[in-house]
Design goal:
6-stranded mixed beta sheet; 22 helices; 10 strands; binds 2'-deoxyguanosine-5'-triphosphate; binds magnesium ion
Length: 603
């Protein structure tokens, strides 16, 4: 059998077609087995008192001594204690196991969500994932715990009860169960309906979670556009839809229970009538009649719960499917299995005939670029040109659809992912900070860093100037996603974080766009020192930033159309020269406008 991996050991991410939940159930088969045995014994213990009562009643008719009556009573009491203990044990074991499975699944889900790549999150919705990781996981636990116990109990009581009844009187048993076919028909009707309704409820819940999450995360945009009322109205509408769906589910969910009550009640009535006649006619003893009714009552009690349990099982099935859907997604970026590259990493980067397409649309094609170890290369191009996409290939945010990307002569797809990502410090276009202290944020991934490293990173990123103004310096907590910092501060914190890694390759994806020109120049100057001998890929729009690069690669129409140093490209008088002149013009006009404004204000 496939043994489930211990929580804490990395799982092979989502083998397609594997059913993680079933694997766990099989893994705990002995615990489940123990619980089931206890359950069966408890059930038998619960069905024995009627037999004792049968004897007692028959003995009573024949006239017995008080002390043998006390013996019967004592026996029933002992049976009750045995049953209770066994039932407690089985419920404890099975519920406990379901919680263990829940814990492992939660662990797996978290691990899997970390393993899934950029592409997955382009399509996934946060709220939906949150809903699956919480509500659905709970439903899975319930079905593998309490619901499983209930289902098994009903099954065992059903089979054992019917056997007991058959043993007493076959004809009466058939009469008592005349309604069973109706029950089975009803069950299948409710089953499909509950499943559909529950699916609808969970989908709407995902949608609601998603909306709340977006509204809270995007509260600034909501307020800036005065959309509070509109958002509230649209949320209310979604919530109303949720209520409607939940009510429809409740209709089916609770419907079977009372119907079962009526049916079992009718069965009991028939038995009383027919059985009563049998006793009067002497075809059945009084004891048998009492015992039969007793068992029937136990059975009816259990059957009434069938509706409830069927519904629960249905909910569980849907939830299992939704959790498995996430677990089964195979990440498209998998750890390389080739021979590891030689260490230490030098930082030579080479793009060969690289093309990238998103959903059939080609964004980059036939890109060739070699960056010698230690060089600084700038990627230049209009917005949407594919600069981020190209740089992202190096850390495998996605993989190229054609061609190859090599670091130190080894295809990045062959690299072990952790080593690859340790070797390349990537400062993304949108700085992301966690709601933690600045220290925790910049030491992200390097918790063991010492003071000297913090000093260097904050000095080069010029974050040190801001730290003086912050109440607690490095220990200042910066709110969710760094809301208490300015755009430029966030970018510099992200830069400091990347510098802490001291990786052989640094990628700055428009990482200084919110920093003023003067500070930017200071940062680049400082970077020159720390990056000596290391490779830097610089993406920027300002030509003042770009001119320091050894090589500029101009991307247009999905490929590199020009390359060379700043001076060479100006001399060539091509695309770069045009961009440069346009920027100079714009700056000059801005300056003139400022002079006019100043002059006008002074007059
Ligand atoms: P920027 O940052 O505005 O200066 O532009 P670039 O040059 O960094 O552009 P980039 O690489 O982010 O995007 C190039 C094109 O590819 C653009 O049309 C958007 C598209 N694209 C980028 N990432 C994805 C993705 O994950 N999925 C899809 N479907 N399209 C993407
Ligand atoms: Mg970009």
């Amino acid at each position: 059998m496939t043994s489930a991996p211990e929580a804490g050991t990395p799982l092979p991410p989502g083998r397609a077609g594997s059913n993680r939940i079933l694997q766990y159930v099989l893994h705990y088969r002995w615990r489940y087995g123990g619980g089931m045995v206890a359950l069966i014994l408890a059930t038998i213990a619960s069905l024995l008192p009627p037999v004792v009562i049968q004897r007692a009643v028959d003995d009573l008719r024949d006239g017995i001594a008080m002390d043998s009556l006390a013996q019967y009573a004592g026996l029933i009491a002992i049976l009750a204690v045995v049953e209770g203990t066994l039932r407690y044990y089985s419920r404890m074991v099975v519920s406990g196991t379901s919680r263990m499975i829940e814990y492992r699944l939660r662990d797996d889900l978290a691990r899997h969500l970390m393993a899934l790549d950029h592409n997955y999150y382009v399509h996934a919705r946060t709220g939906d994932l949150m809903s699956r990781a919480t509500n659905d996981l709970q439903a899975v636990r319930d079905v593998l715990g309490p619901s499983l116990v209930d289902m098994s109990r009903i099954l065992v009581v059903g089979v054992a009860g019917i056997l007991f009844m058959l043993f007493i009187d076959v004809r009466l048993t058939l009469i008592a169960l005349v309604y069973l076919p109706v029950v089975i028909g009803l069950m299948s009707f409710f089953e499909t309906n509950v499943e559909h309704r529950f699916m609808e409820v969970q989908e709407q819940l995902s949608h609601l979670t998603d909306r709340s999450q977006e509204n809270i995360a995007g509260i600034r945009a909501v307020k800036a556009y005065a959309q509070e009322d509109a958002e509230i109205a649209s949320f209310a509408q979604a919530n109303e839809e949720m209520r409607g769906r939940a009510m429809r589910l409740a209709l089916y969910h609770s419907g079977l229970f009372p119907i079962m009550g009526v049916l079992t009640g009718a069965g009991t009535l028939l038995v009383l009538w027919v059985g009563g006649h049998d006793v009067v006619a002497g075809r059945m003893s009084m004891g048998e009649f009492v015992a039969f009714n007793f068992i029937l009552a136990v059975l009816a009690n259990q059957l009434m719960a069938v509706g409830w349990v069927v519904a629960m099982a249905q909910l569980g099935t849907v939830a299992i499917r939704r959790v498995n859907e996430v677990l089964r997604t195979v990440p498209s970026v998998l750890d390389g299995t080739g021979t590891p590259p030689p260490l230490p990493v030098r930082g030579e980067v080479e793009f060969t005939n690289v093309s990238v397409a998103f959903e059939g649309r080609e964004v980059l094609h036939d890109v060739n670029l070699r960056i010698p170890a230690g060089a600084t290369v700038a990627l230049v191009g209009g917005t949407g040109a594919g600069k981020t996409t190209l740089a992202g290939l190096l850390v495998r945010l996605s993989d190229p659809t054609g061609g190859s990307v090599c670091l130190d002569g080894v295809d990045v797809r062959e690299w072990p992912l952790p080593l690859l990502r340790d070797s390349v410090a990537f400062v993304p276009q949108e700085a992301f900070l966690f709601s933690d202290s600045i220290r925790e944020n910049i030491s992200y991934g390097r918790p063991e860093a010492g003071d000297a490293e913090y000093d260097l990173a904050t000095r080069i990123s010029r974050l040190s100037n801001d730290l003086k103004d912050l109440t607690d310096g490095l220990e200042t907590t910066i709110g969710e996603r760094g809301v208490t910092l300015s755009g430029g501060q966030k970018q510099r914190a992200a830069l400091a974080r990347a510098l802490m890694k001291q990786a052989p390759v640094l990628v700055l994806d428009d990482a200084l766009s919110h920093v003023d020109t003067q500070t930017e120049e200071q940062i680049l100057e400082g970077l020159n020192d720390v990056m000596a001998g290391r490779t830097t890929i610089l993406i920027a729009h300002r030509t003042s930033t770009l001119r320091s690069a050894d090589l500029l690669a101009i991307i247009e129409g999905g490929t590199i159309v020009e390359r060379g140093s700043h001076d060479e490209l100006l001399a060539a008088d091509g695309v770069y020269a045009r961009i440069y002149r346009e920027q100079l013009d714009a700056e000059r006009r801005a300056q003139e406008q400022a002079d006019i404004d100043l002059g006008g204000g002074g007059a």
